[in-house]
Amino acid sequence: LNLKDLVTYFLNLRQANVQETPRWEQEYRLTEAYQVPDASVSSMHTALTRIASEPHILQRYYVYNSVSYNHLTCEDSCRIEHVCAIQHVAFNTYATCLHGLGAKLVPGFLLILTLLPSLHVLEVL
């Protein structure tokens, strides 16, 4: 499976309630948001590395994770919580990550297995 990109869309519910036809809007495109060439395992790992280490990329992820609703600043404890959540689906390993040395990166294949179920919309280009 060679994914070229992932695109996430959202539906503004307030707007949808007053319009006759709901309108889906693009929230972000993976390659643009995280400066990666495609949606490969390697690129997903690069995106996680950037989320874990670059505050402006973490903030971008944090805003997108709340469907552009939450505009608070994501500081260190927030970073650890989110990076651990991206890497660890099972609660026991998530809790270990939180109480361990923080958000250490996992191999790319495990990352892609973790991220795929949580994607809102997957677009294969």
UniProtKB/TrEMBL annotation:
InterPro entries: ASM_C
Entry keyword annotation includes Repeat: no
UniProtKB keywords: Glycoprotein, Hydrolase
Keyword Glycoprotein found: yes
Molecular function terms from GO: hydrolase activity
PANTHER family: ACID SPHINGOMYELINASE-LIKE PHOSPHODIESTERASE 3B, SPHINGOMYELIN PHOSPHODIESTERASE
Name of the featured protein: Sphingomyelin phosphodiesterase C-terminal domain-containing protein
